[in-house]
């Protein structure tokens, strides 16, 4: 006797299900509790009980029944692909046209050595130009006569920011009327620079917080003007040169060719001395410990100044440097979770900056605790570090203790650690101890009385570190190549060759050699120029070239695609983050960093182009060092890309002077042939120099055809390899139409289209009307279906992509298709290659109905099987769709087909969004494996500001009681406030509210962030078996089986009757993340090597110039005068910025 179906709450009408023993209700295993196959045996033993003889009801289908359905599905797919895909026929077409092409071989070792040599030659030309510039600069400065009385009107130059400042009526320079010295230039658009340029002049950029009229700056402008002719001569010798730049230690940037400055609308904080290339070129790597006094006397505005100063100091460090930050009072402790020196990369510096904001002032000052902690950090040899310049940076408001005993113990007599001291805030303390500490330890003493002094005084220490480099002379004149970063003038991603420029002057006969660095010379190389030296289309869709530096950061890689622009940080994407990390790649990375050659075939995981799928593939890695640089070059090839086709159309070219449009197969590219031969999309490649690019493929094809009417097959302006292969594949795919597609009725098998795509750049879609709904990339190498088909055997299903935030598919208005594709493998003379992919586009609705029939108990095209009252029947996917869920899910976990009509509009969604309970069971039973990774190149909208309103940043606001207190007017707080008010009137940028600063700035509209990506792929289970989703009365039976020769999983399950077992939902969509825990990552740092040169010591260094106090105690008279000036609105003429080095007067 049949037992009514189990219920959970209200019962559901429909055929009864046979009774079966259900285990006790309990929570289902979570995502981490993967259940091995052996544990399923008790569940499997229950299944025969469900089909007891004589039961007059529907029962869950037996395993052999579902295996039968699976075979029918496999046969149907295979049959359609054999008839319409035309794989075998396309093989025959290639063989029939064997005289039209040759099979060429990619020899990895020769290829990678050639490309490395070409890159070396390219960079060497820039090195020669750099050396000419650096030598000329040193000679010009040596010959220059310092002028004390120089005036602005004496200097004529093009101020790159002049146009922007003229457009801004609030600009300080408009108010000063200092435009008499500025040239007015005409510019022409230059695509190489992606900018308007003038080749006859240089341009000058001066930071906002430096007064252009100071004597130091005017003398700098005077002698650097002579560089203009050297820049021009360099370009004459090498027309491919891009930006040539001299970054001065005074902050002046002179670059060629002249171009208007691309400044943000509100605040331009650009200072060349803080650019990655300048920092890397101005000094050797650094091990730095920053210690911050947080005793009780450090409070309010002084503590804020210290926090800002530390953040600015961190920005002077590059990835070659190591750092830690600690706070101290009676005791010292790290401000973050980092307990030792860590690499000063973007993510670590972010941790420091966030931690510094949490510092709280309390206790008493204990310099000894701070310095002992710092020295212990620098003496720790069990960690990775720079092992070059060692320094301690102390920020304090003042104190009496000189801690001489600490220096005697740790640093004397060799003084291998430099000590820099910073007196922060306005105070009346004796600064002599701070000066003594710096002078006694080869460092420098600085004062930061207000926010305006922070940037200038947290970067001047680089001049001190540059002394041993200058004194080393020619030995230190070595070109360094930087990490990848974003060019400030819009060139895109670049690397820069840098060369330090030294001061060769002497104060008099027999005097010591000057030890100041004048600046850094730089020449940019666009990454696109380097990419042009690498082979593209001969490597196939999944082959590529990459390059890394000594940090393991990629210089070239197809996955190097930062989404943000105009950021001030370098682009530091590690090779192991650009790809999916594994032990083999770690080994390859280490070998490349060590400058070795190598070759290794590995089995690894790759992410699909649309980042929805993971494929397990075989790749061949080959690598060599790029000589004379710190870079190493690698080549990645799949085994099927060892060979490639090269068209040989000599038989068709009867007369060289005929245009290409007269070639035999060219007619099949013409739109007039599309109706009979199918629509042709051509890859938007650079076939000829004069070909106008377009994002619209129809327009691009039109431009191509027009150009081909004029171009001969051997034209020097065209890439014959690309051009001839395109013509070859046009004819090859047209023959496929002729032999296979044209005579077939696609409607008979519910097909919307058939298609073929080739390495040569042709995508042919038949019939022509199907092209209206074709959304795949016209460049096959950038089409996910194409690349995945090459990497997978069999038929690859690709449902339409659906974003969970978008509306479901509207089946009523549009016909939705599912792509099925497979690679065409050729074997020619023992050489195997895959030059094309073919496929069909299934009509979703029609195939969903067909799916029901194939997964049913029908034996022929008869009516669905009926089950009488006294007979026993198994449920199937057609008759029992109210009780039985049948789906096809692809290898990424996305829904492809369902027997539930209401789920058709969810095709393409991650299955957990359709049936979370069932997807979790599939994962827990090892049908799927999960891979998590991080995208460090994402762009995110800025976080909304807190309760800051439009208040000026970091400014102390006195109370009414303060104003009424005479003592307050003579206090340090009043003095500091007035200094900030005065600075704010002169330099508006520091006094703007944060929201105003953000206005019009692309940096604040979007910022770089980390996104966590999760992909699923087939696990280790290949067998077909049943299981139970265990949840008492809510338990469900399901069956899952892989379909042979496809990327599909066939799943049959009881529909859920209740939802108490919704234990969790697997997530697949990309989510915002803080990335992996940095505190754990630094405990196992990735392998890297620093630059092979280090200049941190020279016996002849003069350390007597170590800083002197420049502040003065506030007086009532001065304060009253300042207040009157403020009330009258007449700010005094600003004086030159007080530089740390008085000897800047050269």
Automatic annotation (TrEMBL):
Using the UniProt record, give the first listed, main subcellular location: membrane
Query: What residue stretches are annotated with the VWFA domain?
Result: 287-465
Q: Where is the protein situated, by its record's location annotation?
A: Membrane
Q: Where is this region: Disordered?
A: 1-30
Q: Which GO terms describe its molecular function?
A: metal ion binding; voltage-gated calcium channel activity
Q: Does the keyword Cell cycle apply?
A: no
Q: Topology in the membrane?
A: Single-pass type I membrane protein
Keyword Protein biosynthesis carried by entry: no
Question: What InterPro entries does this protein's entry cite?
Answer: Ca_channel_alpha-2/delta (IPR051173), VDCC_a2/dsu (IPR013680), VWA_N (IPR013608), VWF_A (IPR002035), vWFA_dom_sf (IPR036465)
Q: What superkingdom does the record give?
A: Eukaryota
Indicate the family of this protein.
Belongs to the calcium channel subunit alpha-2/delta family.
Protein name, UniProt field: Calcium voltage-gated channel auxiliary subunit alpha2delta 2
> What species is this protein from?
Microcebus murinus (Gray mouse lemur)
Species lineage, top-down? Answer: Eukaryota, Metazoa, Chordata, Craniata, Vertebrata
């Amino acid at each position: 006797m049949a037992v009514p179906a189990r219920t959970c709450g209200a019962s559901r009408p429909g055929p009864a299900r046979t009774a079966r023993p259900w285990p006790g209700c309990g929570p289902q295993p979570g995502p981490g509790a993967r259940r091995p196959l052996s544990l399923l045996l008790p569940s499997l033993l229950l299944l025969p009980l469900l089909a007891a003889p004589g039961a007059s009801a529907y029962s869950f289908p037996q395993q052999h029944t579902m295996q039968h359905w699976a075979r029918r599905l496999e046969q149907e797919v295979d049959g359609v692909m054999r008839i319409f895909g035309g794989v075998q026929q396309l093989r025959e077409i290639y063989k029939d046209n064997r005289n039209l092409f040759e099979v060429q071989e990619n020899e990895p070792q020769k290829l990678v050595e050639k490309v490395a040599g070409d890159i070396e030659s390219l960079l060497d030309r820039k090195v020669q130009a750099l050396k000419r510039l650096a030598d000329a600069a040193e000679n010009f400065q040596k010959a220059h006569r310092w002028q004390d009385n120089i005036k602005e009107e004496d200097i004529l130059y093009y101020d790159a920011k002049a146009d922007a400042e003229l457009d801004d009526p609030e600009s300080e320079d408009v108010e000063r009327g200092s435009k008499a010295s500025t040239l007015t230039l005409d510019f022409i658009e230059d695509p190489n620079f992606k900018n308007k340029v003038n080749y006859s002049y240089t341009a000058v950029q001066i930071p906002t917080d430096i007064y252009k009229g100071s004597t130091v700056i005017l003398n700098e402008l005077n002698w650097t003007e002579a560089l203009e002719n050297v820049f021009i001569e360099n370009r004459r010798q090498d027309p491919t040169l891009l930006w040539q730049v001299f970054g001065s230690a005074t902050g002046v940037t002179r670059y060629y060719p002249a171009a208007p400055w691309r400044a943000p609308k509100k605040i331009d904080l650009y200072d060349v001395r803080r650019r990655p290339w300048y920092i890397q070129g101005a000094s050797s790597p650094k091990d730095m410990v920053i210690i911050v006094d947080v005793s009780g006397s450090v409070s309010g505005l002084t503590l804020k100044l210290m926090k800002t100063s530390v953040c600015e100091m961190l920005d002077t460090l590059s990835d070659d440097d190591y750092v830690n930050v600690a706070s101290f009072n009676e005791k010292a402790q790290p401000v973050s979770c980092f307990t030792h020196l860590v690499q000063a990369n973007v993510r670590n510096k972010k941790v420091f900056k966030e931690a510094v904001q949490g510092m709280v002032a309390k206790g008493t000052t204990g310099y000894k605790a701070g310095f002992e902690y710092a020295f212990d950090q620098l003496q720790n040899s069990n960690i990775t570090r720079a092992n070059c310049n060692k320094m301690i940076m102390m920020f304090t408001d003042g104190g009496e203790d000189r801690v001489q005993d600490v220096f005697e113990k740790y640093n004397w007599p060799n003084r291998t650690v430099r000590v820099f001291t910073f007196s922060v805030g306005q105070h009346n303390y004796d600064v002599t101890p701070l000066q003594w500490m710096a002078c006694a330890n080869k460092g420098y003493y600085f004062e930061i009385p207000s926010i305006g002094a922070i940037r200038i005084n947290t970067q001047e220490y680089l001049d001190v570190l540059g002394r041993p480099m200058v004194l080393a002379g020619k030995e230190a004149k070595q070109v360094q190549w930087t990490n990848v970063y974003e060019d400030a003038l819009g060139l895109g991603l670049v690397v820069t060759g840098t060369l330090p420029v030294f001061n060769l002057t002497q104060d008099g006969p027999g005097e010591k050699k000057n030890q100041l660095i004048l600046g850094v010379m730089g020449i940019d190389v666009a990454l696109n120029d380097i990419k042009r030296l690498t082979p593209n289309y001969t490597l196939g869709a999944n082959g590529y070239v990459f390059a890394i530096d000594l940090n393991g950061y990629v210089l070239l890689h197809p996955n190097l695609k930062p989404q943000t622009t105009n950021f001030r940080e370098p682009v530091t994407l590690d090779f192991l983050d650009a790809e999916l990390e594994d032990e083999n790649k770690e080994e390859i990375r280490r070998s490349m960093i060590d400058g070795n050659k190598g070759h290794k075939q590995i089995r690894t995981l790759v992410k699909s182009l649309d980042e929805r799928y993971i494929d397990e593939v075989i790749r061949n890695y080959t690598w060599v060092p790029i000589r004379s640089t710190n870079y190493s070059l690698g080549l990645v090839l799949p085994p099927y890309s060892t060979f490639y086709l090269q068209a040989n159309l000599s038989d068709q070219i009867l007369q060289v002077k005929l245009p290409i449009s007269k070639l035999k197969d060219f007619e099949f590219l013409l739109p007039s042939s599309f109706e009979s031969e199918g629509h042709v999309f051509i890859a938007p490649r650079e076939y000829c120099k004069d070909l106008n690019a377009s994002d619209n493929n129809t327009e691009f094809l039109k431009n191509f055809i027009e150009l081909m009417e004029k171009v001969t097959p051997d034209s020097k302006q065209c890439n014959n390899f690309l051009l001839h292969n395109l013509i070859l594949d046009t004819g090859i795919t047209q023959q496929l139409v002729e032999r296979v597609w044209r005579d077939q009725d696609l409607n008979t098998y519910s097909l919307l289209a058939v298609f073929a795509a080739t390495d040569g750049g042709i995508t042919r879609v038949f019939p022509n009307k199907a092209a209206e709904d074709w959304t795949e990339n016209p460049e096959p190498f950038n089409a996910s279906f194409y690349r995945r088909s090459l990497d997978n055997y069999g038929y690859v299903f690709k449902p339409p992509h659906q974003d969970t935030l978008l509306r479901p598919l509207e089946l009523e208005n549009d016909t939705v298709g599912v792509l099925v594709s497979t690679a065409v493998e050729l074997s020619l003379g023992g050489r195997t290659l895959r030059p094309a992919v073919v496929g069909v586009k299934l009509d979703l609705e029609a195939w969903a109905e067909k799916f029901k029939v194939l997964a049913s108990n029908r034996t022929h095209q008869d009516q669905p099987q009926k089950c009488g009252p006294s007979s026993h029947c198994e449920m199937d996917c057609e008759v029992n769709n109210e009780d039985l869920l049948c789906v096809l899910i692809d290898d990424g976990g996305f829904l492809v087909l369902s027997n539930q009509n209401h789920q058709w509009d969810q095709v393409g969604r991650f299955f957990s969004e359709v049936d979370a309970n069932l997807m979790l069971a599939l994962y827990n039973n090892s049908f799927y494996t999960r891979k998590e990774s991080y995208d460090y190149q994402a762009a995110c909208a800025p976080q909304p500001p807190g309760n800051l309103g439009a208040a000026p940043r970091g400014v102390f606001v006195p109370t009414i009681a303060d104003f009424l207190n005479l003592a307050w007017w003579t206090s340090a707080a009043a003095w500091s406030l007035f200094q900030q008010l005065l600075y704010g009137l002169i330099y508006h940028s520091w006094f703007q509210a944060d929201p105003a600063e953000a206005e019009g700035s692309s940096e604040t509209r979007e910022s770089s962030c980390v996104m966590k990506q999760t992909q699923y792929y087939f696990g280790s289970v290949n067998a077909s078996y049943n299981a139970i989703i265990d949840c008492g009365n809510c338990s469900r039976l399901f069956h899952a089986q892989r379909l042979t020769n496809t990327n599909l999983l066939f799943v049959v399950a009881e529909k859920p009757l209740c939802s108490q077992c919704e234990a969790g939902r697997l997530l697949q969509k990309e989510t915002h993340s803080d990335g992996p825990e940095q505190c754990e990552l630094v405990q196992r740092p990735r392998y890297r090597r620093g630059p092979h040169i280090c200049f941190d010591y020279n016996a002849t260094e003069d350390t007597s110039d170590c800083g002197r106090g420049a502040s003065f105690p506030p007086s009532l008279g001065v304060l009253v005068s300042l207040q009157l000036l403020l009330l009258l609105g007449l700010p005094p003429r600003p004086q030159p910025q007080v530089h740390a080095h008085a000897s800047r007067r050269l």
